Amino acid sequence: MKVLAAMSGGVDSAVAAARAAEAGHEVTGVHLALSRNPASYRSGARGCCTIEDSNDARRAADVIGIPFYVWDMSERFHADVVEDFMDEYAAGRTPNPCLRCNEKIKFAAVLDRALALGFDAVATGHYARLREGPDGLVEMHRAADAGKDQSYVLGVLDQDQLRHSLFPLGDTPKAQVREEAAARGLLVADKPDSHDICFVADGDNAGWLREKLGDRAPNHGGDIVDDATGEVLGRHAGTYGYTIGQRKGLRIGTPAPDGRPRFVLDIEPVSATVRVGPRERLAVTRLRGIRPRWCGTVPTALEGSGVTVQLRAHGEEHRARVIVSLDGPDTEVEVELLDPAYGIAPGQAVVVYDGTRVVGSATIAATERVPA
Q1: Tens-digit pLDDT profile for residues 143-153
Q2: Cα–Cα distance between 254 and 233 in angstroms, integer?
Q3: Residue range 281-369, CATH number
Q4: CATH of 2-190 given 3.40.50.620, 1.10.10.60, 3.40.50.12780, 3.40.50.300
Q5: Single pTM value for the model
């Protein structure tokens, strides 16, 4: 096959490209330039898409012996990922830009261009496994290395995208990938993994949003309120600086009567109000998902011992019952959590599993909490 290997400049994508070439595929490496103004150097393990990353990817391609190109996807990335991130936070929701990038950029814009250029598949360094199911469809399963599993952020891929994807690292522990990179002479063998949001290089989401939103922010300050009593406990500089479940950085001078910490329970951008309360008020038992994307056949209902949902990229699994329903022209997903989850915010993704198989995902629109 003709394979386009997406090379970020990290160890995972480099080894994935090397494995694809070693398997006999005709491989071409491509680095995605996603930043309009890439920095010269990374900040430790934060950020990506820097000039340094591009050079690291090029050197890895040279060692592997494959052609290499840089594709400028910065405008598409800004429109589909960065702008979406800002809009969601301004509306009081908590988005996951990695899912949006996979959905809109890596397995949409890049895959579409690759297929138009005559490539058969796109290979990445994601940790997930693909296999053919009994119905002939391509199934996506969790990676062998549970600590590195990335099936959650790939839960937005549909069947056509899965048929044109390769994940060469899905069966391999991360430590072994680094050893292999060193044995292959790849200089990125010891390069730190990138983490957090790639376009917020210093990890300060609130500061980044404050700078970028400017006059677009719905408010520049408001009250932090005790949800039970209505007492104003403090002021904030903008609701976009908070997310449901947040405990640190509230800067509330008045302690709770019982001395326990408070958490963000609700965010109301219109009234510029942040409501806080005890952790037990964060317990969610039901949620509603919109804009579902299915990896294969659209289910109508899922239940049983193997049915679980994951609500964060590195979060735990929760046993669940899942019902898919049509509400007018739109499909919605109703999820009953058999084990309560805490700190779940609208805008996050719910990814549905049947055992290790990824069924699909949806964007959380609303949650139902345990009554006070």
Answers
A1: 999 999 999 99
A2: 6
A3: 2.40.30.10
A4: 3.40.50.620
A5: 0.91
pLDDT over threshold 70, residue 292: yes
Residue with more model confidence, 120 or 195: 120
Annotated binding-site residues for ATP read 6-13, 32, 125
pLDDT at residue 240 tops 90 = no
Tell whether the model's pLDDT for residue 15 goes beyond 80. Answer: yes
Q: Where are the domains of the chain?
A: 2-190, 218-277, 281-369
What are the E-state strand segments in the chain? 2-6, 26-33, 68-72, 121-123, 128-132, 138-142, 165-166, 222-226, 232-236, 263-268, 273-277, 283-294, 301-302, 307-310, 317-327, 330-342, 349-354, 357-369
Average pLDDT over residues 349-369: 96
CA-nearest of 139, 87, 48, 34 to 269 is: 87
Q: Sort 165 into a burial class: Cβ within 10 Å, 0-12 / 13-18 / 19+.
A: buried
C-beta separation of 17 from 64 below 8 A: yes
Alpha helices in the chain (DSSP H): 11-22, 51-64, 74-77, 83-90, 97-101, 110-116, 159-163, 174-183, 205-213
Q: Find the mean pLDDT for residues 180-189.
A: 97
pLDDT of residue 39: 57
- CATH class of the structural domain 218-277: mainly beta
> How far, in Å, CA of 90 to CA of 82, rounded?
12
Catalytic residue numbers, as ranges:
101, 198
How many CA atoms does the CB half-sphere of 135 hold within 13 Å?
A: 6
pLDDT digit string (tens) for 261-284? 999 999 998 888 999 999 999 999
Residue 195 DSSP one-character state = B
Do 218-277 and 281-369 fold alike per CATH? no
